[in-house]
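Researcher: Please predict.
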Amino acid sequence: MLIVTALYLLFVYLIFHKFKLLPWNTVSKVIVLILGVIILAGFLVGLQGLTPASTQAVISGFVTEIAPQVSGRVIEVPAEPNVELDPGTVLYRIDPLPYQYRVDQLTAQLVDTEASVAQLKESYDAARAQTEATSAQLELTTLRLDQAETLAATGAGSVFEVEQYQSQQEQLTAQLDANRANEQAAYAALTSSVGDTQSRVAGVLAQLESAQYDLENTEVKAPGLGLVTMFVLRPGMQASPSRSIATFVYTDEIFIVGYFAQKALRAVKVGDSAKISFPAVPGRLFETEVMRIGTAVGEGQYLASGQLAMTSEQRTTRIYPILLSIPEEFPLELRKVGLSADATIYTENAGVVGIVATILQWVGTSLDLVI
C-alpha cells in the first residue's frame, strides 16, 4: 500500500503544487485527506478480495528418500548429483558377490531337489509293486488255507498244515498293511505340490527367486524422471535398508505452492489466472494459473493416540495453500525446488483492481533489481 500512497501523493502534488490546477487551502486539504483514506481503504479491500497476493510462494515438487533393499558395501556411484536422470538409471551399486553366491548355492540345490523328486517317483513305483506282490501272496495263502481246512475236515489233511497257512496269512496281512502305508506315504510325497510344482521344488524355487531379487536390488535405480541432490555417497561406504543415503527429486511434476489469506478461498477457483515474480528473476512477471486448491492442512489433522486433545495446541491458521502451475516461459535452469516467489491471483471480477495490482506487482519485482 505504500506504492498506492506514493502514487496518490504524487497525483496531489501535480494537481495542487506543480500545475496548481486547484487551490491548496483548508477545504482542499480535508478533501484530499478523506479521499485518500477512501481510496486506500477501497483498494485495500479490492486487492485482498479480488486479487489475493502471497509473498510465501515456493517452487515445490515430490521428493522421496532412497534406501536400498539390501545391505552391503557400495562399490560404484555412477549417478551425478543435480543431473536429470531417466527412470531406471543406476544411482549406485552394492557389492553383489554375497548375493551371487547365494543364487549359485540355491541353483545347485534346485538341481539336487529335482533329482530327488525323480527318485520319489521310483520309490513310489517300488512301493506299489511291493504292495501288489504281497497282495498276490496273501490271495494264494488264503486259497491254500481254504483247501487245507477242507482236507482236514475230511481227515485227508493235517491240522498242522492248517495252522501253518493261518500263520502265513496273518503275517502277510500285516505286511500288506505296512506296504500300503509305505505306498501312500510315497504317493503323498510325490504328489504334494504348490500349484503345478512339486512342493520341495517349489520351496527351493521360492528361495531362489528371493535370492535373485536381492541380487537385482544391489543396483539401486532412479524411481522416475528426476535427480539426486547433495549426493555425498562414495564407494566404500556401507548401505543398509534401515538408513536412507540419497534424496530423489521428481522433476516430471513441479509446481508452485502459495500460501494465501483464507478470505481468498471465497473468490479463487481452479483456472484463474495468476502472475508470479521471482527474486531470482527480478523485474519480470510470469503468467500462470491456479492448478489446485488444497482440501486439508496439518492444523486440522487429529492423529489416533491414547491421549486427549490439549487446548494449548496451536491448531489454527489464517493462511491456506493454493497450487499454481509453473509458467511455461520460466527458465528451465531456474526450476529448482525451494525457489521462492511472490504470487498474485486475478479473479474473474478483478477489473480495474487487477490492473492496479499488476502495476503494484511490477513495481515490487522491479525493486528487486536495486534492493
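Model: Helices lie at 2-18, 26-50, 97-154, 159-191, 199-216, 351-367.
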